[in-house]
Design brief:
disordered N terminus, alpha+beta
Amino acid sequence: MNGTNVQAAGEGDAPGGAASGGLAGAGALIDRLVEDSLAVLAQDAEAAIERFQARLTDVGRDHPKSEWGKVGVRVRAQHSPQSTPGAFAVEWVSFSFARGCAGRTCHTTYIPRGTGDRYQRAAFRGQARAWQIDLIMEAEETLGRIRAAARQISQARVQLRSATRAVQAAREYPGGCRGGPD
């Protein structure tokens, strides 16, 4: 990078100059890109889940209902204030049914994924039948890639925000001292 590029990128010595304004603009653009990208990935996850459920139903026709495990998969939006806008989780759950005053209700329990972006086969032991686990693991190949992509997109947003704060801090305290002269 030559001196001209450095000067052009850093024009205006006051905080909030061109460099921080450019990063703020980039931040807004990244936020829109992240939200749009996550929405597309959530749709891809929903489509993968639909394919899994269709395949499960098709293969399940050869098995009596007593041989069906009670496992499902869902896309759940993350609404926490700390979450990236548009963030979601693709998670497997076990479900059970209960009869009560309100009739039959379905209860779901999250199946822990462990570390990484993919569920391991062992997570489904005791939850699903052997014939279902192979189908689950097929679906997990796609769902794991979707989780990894969503995580990387969210990390890019976090990194840009961190860089923006670092640039602002460097411009606010160019001499390296926060308190000023002694």
